[in-house]
Amino acid sequence: MQVLEEIPSQLAPQINAAVDWINRQRTQTFEVTGLVDYEQAVAAKRGQSIQLGLVLCDGEICTREQVLIEPAKDGFQCSFVEMAEREIPPLLDPPAGIRRIWLDSVLETHEFVLLLFYRGLW
Description:
By secondary structure, the chain is of the alpha+beta class. The protein has helices at about 10-25, 40-45, 100-105; strands spanning about 30-35, 50-55, 60-70, 75-80. It folds into two domains: about 10-90; about 90-120, no CATH class. The chain is about 25% helix and about 25% strand. The radius of gyration is 17 Å and the shape is elongated.
């Protein structure tokens, strides 16, 4: 799955509305750092509903949210979309315990380990 880091100008109003809505729902201050599942949204005609995968970060955590954005008379109406299986998990960090087990096993065979953390993925 490819992540688009530059927001297409034609989607900016919808994405801004979705991020504002998510921030109100979660009482956080996320910013969009990328898009996934964006191909249909880019190809959609003006005034159509779109569905996007938003990669959001707030400085501490990154998450991925699938959002349906529908035109409304006063802007846009947003709602979360449930997905059965995701290539990129909703919280972009491994489940508790997995990282520690992996680190312990790697440190047994190496003097040090360099961890690279990029956009919530390690």
